[in-house]
What does this fold into?
Amino acid sequence: MQTRNRNCSTSRNVQAQMVAAAIDVPFQAARRELERQRQLEWERQRKEQLMAEKHREQMYVDAMRTEVGKLKAELDTQVRIFGAGIHATWWVRG
It folds into this structure.
């Protein structure tokens, strides 16, 4: 009799575990989907941050290129003025 009760008890435990597992499956799927959605949102936000940073850096690079262009033009002007002055005074001194 004790064996029969043990088997019956074991059978009930197994059934209870199967029911619990069957109930838990949709919840696990929902948890996985929720985690996937969180991950996708995090990736979207991170991509947005990186794109904004890239845009700021590109604006900085463009500003630096413009500044370099201005400095080169100013240097060319100074070299022409200074160079002309050297050539003009060279024959006087020489």
About this structure: The radius of gyration is 40 Å. The CA atoms of residues 76 and 82 lie 10 Å apart.
